[in-house]
Amino acid sequence: MTLKKVLTWLVVAFVIFYIIQAPESSAEIVRTVGEALGDAASSFAAFVGSLV
Questions:
Q1: Which of 15, 26, 34, 44 is deepest in the core (most CB within 10 A)?
Q2: How confident is the model at residue 1 (pLDDT cuts 50, 70, 90)?
């Protein structure tokens, strides 16, 4: 097994453990990341729109 596979499985296991231990915090993190990605996409669309 390569080091990359081991690290990947460790990260997946940690994420699952964190979600089980603190579901409210996990949901808030996902919500925050989603909002940030949405804002970034909106800003990028406005930028591209202003070029045309």
A1: 26
A2: confident
